[in-house]
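Reviewer 2 asked us to include a model.

Predict the structure of this chain.
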Amino acid sequence: MLPLCLIVGSDAVDPAGLHREFDGFGFKPYAVATFSSALGMIRQWQFDAVLVDGDGHAGSLLHALPELRDRSNAPIVVVWSDSAERRQIEALQGGATEVIVKPASARLIAAKLHRLIEIGKERPPAGAEEPRAVVRLGPLRLDPRRAAASVGDAPLVLTTGEFELLLLLASRPGEFVHRDTIARTLGSGAGEGRRSADMHICRIRKKLRDAGAKTLRVETVYGRGYCLRFEEESPLGMFATRHPQWCA
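Predicted model (structure tokens):
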């Protein structure tokens, strides 16, 4: 599947050209006009790269970069006309991974983004990474280091794909995860990934139900993706009227 690139603001070459050209340079681009829209997209999707048109956001760029950096692990590239060394250093210190000074072709920008993505995948060597932390949501416990899952004291038997998908959802409780992100997690193409996601979700719902995880609900955000919610059980054992559509 093509890497996802979030383009913030007017593009770096002309009003619409970069968005169109990136399709031909091995990216699936998504363009937004503001940083607030960019942050909303980052909460929902997992991007491989973020490209910011600095000229369109000169006044807010240095304030927005740290938040972009905190919300996304993807390389952030700023493209602008300002060639002043001081401004470039400020952008790098603020959270940019790379600064490209205009004029720059879409081909060059795409090549640099591809290389930054590759570097991110190459780093660090095995054993050097911080182990992923255990994820807990209500009675659910997921241990990425051992690929082990449990509900309360009972083990939850999951396939590799089911575990990775449930871990993705549990890491972002209450937020919907887009189907494209799920397809990438499952290592599938877009169409195949959507069908595979639906099957995995059905099995996860059934296994959570069979394990007695009544306070966990996998919701379908129709046409977009899925969301995992945890709801505290009331003292009378009464729950909200909305229930997931369990798959037998």
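The chain has two domains: 4-122, 135-230. The CA atoms of residues 45 and 178 lie 6 Å apart. We have added this to the supplementary material.
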